Amino acid sequence: MISVLVVDDQTLVRSGISQILSHAADIDVIGDAANGSEAVEKTLRLRPDVVLMDVRMPAMDGLEATKRIIAQRPETKVIVLTTFELDEYVFGAVRAGASGFLLKDIDPDSLRQAVKVVAEGNALLSPSVTRRVIAEFAETTGELDDSVLGQLTPREVEVLALVGKGRSNDEIAEELFISASTAKTHVNRAMMKLGVHDRAQLVVIAYETGLIRPGQG
Prior knowledge:
Blueprint: E1 2-7, H1 11-22, E2 27-33, H2 36-46, E3 50-54, H3 62-72, E4 77-82, H4 90-95, E5 101-103, H5 108-119, H6 130-140, H7 154-164, H8 169-176, H9 180-194, H10 199-208
Parallel strand pairs: 1-2, 1-3, 3-4, 4-5
Helix pairs in contact: 2-3, 7-9, 7-10, 8-9
């Protein structure tokens, strides 16, 4: 059973999302929160598997709440919810450790599937949304720093590049002629060496180091 905390400053939105998720037999909404401060407190107390996090809220916004949650409970996955496709806060949330983000007009089946995908340890990196935001950030970033890539083996750098292009473990395995379990091991080692907890953050690093350029993928 996947436990979920729903965070939004609008009561009707929280209620609607909770109702949608309740139709999935393997998802349990264990609570909700109306702002970032409450989200952090309830995450630490209730220990949900997944937090659905609004961005713009009073008291503490979703970006700061995401940072605090990931810092204090990295095993909880955060999905950022936004109204706008190019929300300026979204990239910051992914950098803070969010597993990806969704538009609030997502259909119910896709929302339920997204929660399951993230709970399984995968990132929500939609080519039409997330990667475009990351690419836009990369275009406005100053000098790139690729020194962190020196921590990785040549194979891990190859794998990082493919993760940056949005490839799954199975796709990485096929492209590099290795097994899916070996691909997963390389991904996990890259995350450990780079000090990140999520594939989404690996994508950020791939862009920030210049390993992946806007438009690739």
